[in-house]
Structures are given as C-alpha cells and as structure tokens.
Amino acid sequence: MNTQRSFSGFIIAGAIALIVAAIAGFYWFFAKSPVNIVASNSQPNAAVFISKLAPVTVSLLANPDKLQSFDSSGEISKLKTSLLAKSGIDYKQDIQPWLKDEITLAVTTLDIDRDPENGRQPGYLMALATSKPEKSQEFLQLLFSKRVLAGANLATEEYQGAKVIYDSSLPESDSLAGAVIDNFVLFANNPKVLRDAINNVQAPDLNLLSSSQYQKASEQIPKGSLATAFLNLPLVAQWQGLDLTEPTYDSEIVAFTLNPQGILAETSFFTSSEIVPTSPPLSKPVGALQYIPASAGLVISGSHLDNLGDGDLAKLWTQAKTAISGSGTDIISRLVQPLTDVQKSQGINLGQDIFSWVQGEYAVALIPRAGQSIPDWVFVTEKSENVPEAIGRLDAIASSKGLSTNTIQLDKQTVVAWTELTTATQKADGKNKPSFTVEAKVKGVHTTSGNYEIFTSDLATIYEVFTTKDKSLINNRNFQDSIATIPQPNQGYVYLDWSKSQHLVEQQVPVLKLIELVGKPFFENLRSLTFSSYGNEPGTLKGSILFQIDH
Which stretch of DSSP H or E encloses residue 370? Predict the structure, then answer.
C-alpha cells in the first residue's frame, strides 16, 4: 500500500518539520506566556548512535509537550496530528507517556550500501529519548503490528543484544526499521542503518563523539540551548550532488537559545585554513547608520569594503553560494541586487569604482516602495583622503554614459544629480514654430554631509534621508533592541525588516517559500532578523542571527 510504502520517508520528513516548527514557533508562544524553560542537555545524547561521517545531525533538546503548553493557536498539535495521520498512532496515548527531552534526526550516510552502481540511497536515523523503555517497546510493537495489518511482512533479529524489527516485504528504499536501545527509540529507513547505529555505540571511535570536528564544535554550544544542528559541510555538498572545489570551511555548529529579544541562533564555522577578518572589529554601530531611513527593509553596515572580496565572510559567502546554486559567485556583485543593476546599466564596476576606496565605515540600504518592483537604495561611506578623486571618477563615468552632472539645492542641501536629458516635441499650429520641452530623468544622486558621502537612487530618497534624520534607523527602537543582543566588538550588521523585505528576499532565495510553509507560525509573526560575525579564535568564524518576534 502507498500509505505504508511512504511511511518511512514520511516519518523522517515529519521529524524534520516537527523540530523546525517547534523551535521556530516556540518564541511566539513563549512571549504570550513567559515561563522559564531550559533544555535538560547542552548536547544531544543520541550522538553515540551517529557516525562521525554523518553529513547532518539536528536535535531538539526539549520535550515538544513543554512547548505545546504555550501553543494557544494549536499549530504544534495540528502538526503532530498530521504527521501521525497515516500511521494509526495516537500521540497522546502511544507516545506522550514515554517521550523524554530529546529528538535527534541525522543523515547518517550518503549511500547505505556504498554501491554507486545501483544509485545512491542516503541513510536516515531518528532517535527519540525515552523515560520508560518498556512503554517504548510496547509502542514499537504496536506500530509494526499496524503495518502488518496494512499488508507488510515483518522480520525481527537480535543484533548485538538488541531486538531489531523491520519490513521484509518492501524494497529497502521504502523500508522502516525500529529498535529500543538503552534510553532511546531508534527509527531508520533501512535495518543496516540501525545495525550501524548499534555498532557506533559498541565502537566509540566510530561515532560522532569521537570526531575532532564535533568535539571542537560542541564546545561552542551555549548551556540551555533548545536545539542544535551540526553539519559536515563537504559531505552536505556531496549529499546535494555539488562539487565544492577547495572549500574553506569544513564544519558548522548552530545552537538555538531564547532571550528577551527573541530567538538567538549562534553559529560557528571551522576551518584548518588561515582566515582573515573582513574588517577591524567595531565596538559600536557605525555612524553611517544615522543617514539610513527607518523605512529601510534591508541594511548592511560595517567598514572596509575594500577588503570585502578577500576576507573570511567573502570565503564563506562563496562556499555558501556554491552550495545553494551549484556555482561560485562573486560576493561583491551579489551584495545587493539593485546595486548590481546599477553596475550593469551605468557601466560602474562596484568592486573597482566604489568598494575599492571605501576604507572606513559604510552602510548600504534597500528601501521597498509600494508599486515598485525594484526598491530604492542608499549607500553611505565615511570620508577619506581618496574620496574626492573617487567621486570625480564616478562623475566622469556618468558623463561617458551620456548623463549630465547637475548641482541642485534640495531643502537647503546641495546635491549632485546624474540625469538623462530627453526632449519632447509639440507640433506647430499654423505659422507657429514647434515647441520643445526638456525632461530630466535622475539616475543617481550624491552629496556630502558631515564626515560622510551619501549616494541614493533618486531625489525623493535623498530628500527622505535628510528630512527624517531624527527618525533614522539608528534611532529606531526595533533596531536598537535587535543589535543589543549581538556581542561586541563585531564586524557590523545585516538587518532585515521582514514585513518590508519578505517579497524581495523570497525573489533572491526561492527555497525560502518552502521553509515558510513548515514554520508558518514563526514567519507569520517574524518582525526582523539581524546577523553579525565576531570573534578572533584561530580557524573559527563565529556569528549570531537574532530573530525578533511580534508579541
């Protein structure tokens, strides 16, 4: 039956959805009924079952029932019901009595039988901590007995002292295997995956705990983390069928914790190569942010754009882009899409003509407008000795493209506009000569204010910069709250106002729409996210993402 054939894949996919939704939605429920919930473990105990060559290991370190108690909208209950709908299992009666404080899911191997001739079948393992192994064994018997009633043929075997139950009538790719070992209920999509998990316990040098990468990564997990994810990055790329040539970073750990401002995801990337910070650490937000309107949807701030292509973040971005799209992409050309459009339409090489001379603070912002498919933009940079020459070069480039350079007074502020002049002709009437009108279309604006040079996409945007300066982003309460959680010093911030930029981000990262379906309660109430990198440990790039949630 299709129901049974799809069950193993369904339970694996369902476990991923449950973990993501539980963490993603929790802060929304927590904010309504604040209760101090701390994970009982800082690290997943199920790591003893997982191979040190596993590409991905994800763990929820809190009981879903504790999270559900704050779920006034019933989203977690609906999710659990939908996941078990085809199994004939009742969560409250059959699982809740024994389920403890850990659910771990891992992609354990890229190919179960290691035979490329018959295609590649990844191995999946799910481990659920149990407080009552006897009850768990009863659940296992119940689950597989229902599969027998649905037409499956079952087999049992004793392996290393453990009783393994699995489907013997279905193709291995559609199989489900289960066992209760120590204080865990294990499920896998193939009995061989379960045998390997048991071997990993018997031979500790095979499991994840013996991996030097994992040992180093686990030291970065904060106490009280509600969930963790460990990724072996080259193996993740292989799992996705990608070829990472000379990857800089070999592994990553992500830990999710709660704080008064939202959900904090702290991540560390590890490498054996020498990494160079993109810029010197900053002990406070850059002054350029005073010229960024609070209406901005996406803001990137920091210092030293001249080093952007060679620093640690650039190498991470290149590796990430390869993993996402299958091809490496220059970080400079992908910084923000509207600036890339400027580069194409006006003959400006962002790397050579702009970023190369930005040796101080900077801020880049996109401002979505109703009715506009492409947002307006603002670029602010701190003055330095080479700035006048660089701006003169930009004016020359504009002139070479047929644009006029005009000085304009705008609300007592002198600005320079790059304009494209066009004429419109009105037909002559009788003996009168034809009349002409000249129209100017602004292609860009720049001006000086204090110690900063400011560039914008049009006159209306630069007018907003100066008329709403007292309501700039740096004075915005949401922005102040979001960066307050990020450690200092750091290398600057990437700030995304979700309500303003959701459509823009979805265009750039289409897979995000699929993620939104899984974490619907979270994304419906997401206010903003803020990213920053920091730290100076050799071989480690650390960063944090704060997700702010509307209460």
Answer: none
User: Residue 281 corresponds to which tokens in the numbers above?
Assistant: 């650490």
Q: With beta carbons less than 8 A apart as the criterion, state whether 466 and 501 touch.
A: no
Cα 10 from chain centre: 24
Residue type, 403: L
Instruction: Give residue-wise pLDDT tens across range 113-122.
Output: 887 777 788 8
- Burial grade of 427 (CB within 10 A; 0-12, 13-18, 19 or more): exposed
Q: Give alpha helix (H) positions in 412-476.
A: 459-467
pLDDT score at 146: 83
Alpha helices in 419-519 (DSSP H): 459-467, 477-484, 498-508, 512-518
Residue 476 CA to residue 109 CA, distance in Å, equals 47
Cα distances (Å, whole numbers) of residue 345 to 222, 301, 331, 341: 47, 25, 19, 6
Q: Which range, 12-26, 116-130, 414-428, is most confident?
A: 116-130
Mean pLDDT of the residues in the chain: 78
Pick 17 or 540 by higher pLDDT: 540
| C-alpha distance from residue 507 to each of 295, 337, 339, 343, 504 (Å) | 20, 10, 16, 19, 5
Whole-number Å distance between alpha carbons of 291 and 182: 60
Q: Which two tokens stand for residue 17?
A: 């959805």
Q: State the chain's maximal CA–CA distance in angstroms.
A: 108
Q: Answer for the pair 230, 57: CB distance below 8 angstroms, yes or no.
A: yes
Phi and psi at residue 24, to the nearest 5° = -65, -40
In the numeric block, the tokens 């959680």 are attached to 485
* Highest-pLDDT range among 49-58, 381-390, 422-431: 49-58
Alpha carbons 321 and 329: distance in angstroms, whole number? 6
Q: Which residues of 186-204 are buried (b: 16+ CB within 10 A; e: fewer)?
A: bbbbbbbbbbbbbebbeee
The H or E element that residue 198 is part of is helix 191-202
Residues 525 and 163: their CA atoms lie apart, in Å, by 45
| Contacts of range 439-445, beta carbons closer than 8 Å, 24 or more positions apart | 440/404, 440/406, 442/417, 442/418, 443/346, 443/398, 443/403, 443/418, 443/419, 444/342, 444/346, 444/398, 444/417, 444/418, 445/415, 445/416, 445/417, 445/418
The Cα–Cα gap between 443 and 461 comes to: 12
- Measured between alpha carbons, how far is 77 from 92 in angstroms, rounded to an integer? 10
Strand partners of residue 530: 495, 546
Give the whole-angstrom CA distance, residue 530 versus residue 498. 10
If one counts every other C-beta atom within 10 angstroms of the C-beta of residue 314, the result is 18
SS3 (DSSP) at 138: helix
What Rg, from alpha-carbon coordinates, does the chain have? 28
Tens digits of residue pLDDT in 201-233: 999 899 999 999 999 999 999 888 888 999 998
DSSP code at position 293? B
Rounded to 10°, the helix 7-32/75-84 angle is 170
Alpha helices, DSSP H only, in 92-188?
Answer: 133-149
Determine the Cα–Cα distance for residues 74 and 76; give it in Å rounded to an integer.
Answer: 6
Is the pLDDT at 307 greater than 80? The verdict is: no
Decide if 329 contacts 337 (C-beta within 8 A).
no
